[in-house]
């Protein structure tokens, strides 16, 4: 089993940067995987184009690069977690985790016995090196991140961080902001969100796990990494395509105007 690049960076005390794939399109996932990210997450929870079959195709497409394929699973259930890990994902982001017990359920589902309760089955992740090698190294290389995205999770964050089998805490700023009464568009500069973020960083460090944040584009994510977060996403496929096509169309309208051509 090849080394997990993101975990290697963390061992060196370095943060990792991530892309976000919501389209479920394996070609787009492959294109993004060549953009220089350390990891690429396929969003099976909120990605409208992501299905049980397309998530596997995206993992396969990313697997042709040295980028670490991660999946945000639809919910905290072992079946979803084992499915994407067997498909070749090198980690999961688990949503709506509010207690130590819920975090432990996710963490243990990512680990083979005796550290956890992940079931051994047919796994494409083991094709390259064989099942024995994969099982021997998977517990060390697979990443399990649990999402902190409610006030209840924030209240319990110190205990959540101690859950067995998890590697880190991952702030979901939109749901957390909604629950805290913070602006969905202004959380990055809101003192309440920043205080919550600092609490998550301290809880993670105290428990020996990694603090991570979903981020919100390059500038915000850079500031979050300066705070101490060790993983942020900086771009999603859907937003990049939307911004790029809108920018191109606007440039065309301006060029038509400059050339004195009437255009609606």
Q: TL;DR of this structure?
A:
This protein has 264 residues and is of the alpha/beta class. It contains twelve helices and eight strands. It has an eight-stranded parallel β-sheet.
Explain how this protein is built:
It is a single chain. The protein is an alpha/beta fold. The protein has a single domain (5-258), classed as Phosphoenolpyruvate-binding domains (TIM Barrel), CATH 3.20.20.60. The chain is 47% helix and 15% strand. It contains twelve helices and eight strands. It has helices at 5-11, 26-33, 52-62, 78-87, 100-109, 131-141, 151-155, 157-160, 173-180, 191-207, 218-227, 237-258, and strands spanning 16-21, 39-43, 68-72, 91-94, 143-148, 168-171, 210-213, 231-236. It has an eight-stranded parallel beta sheet with strand order 7-6-5-4-3-2-1-8. Strand 2 (39-43), helix 3 and strand 3 (68-72) form a beta-alpha-beta unit. Helix 2 (26-33) packs parallel to helix 3. The longest helix is centred in the C-terminal third of the chain and has 22 residues, at 237-258. The model has no long low-confidence stretch (mean pLDDT 94).
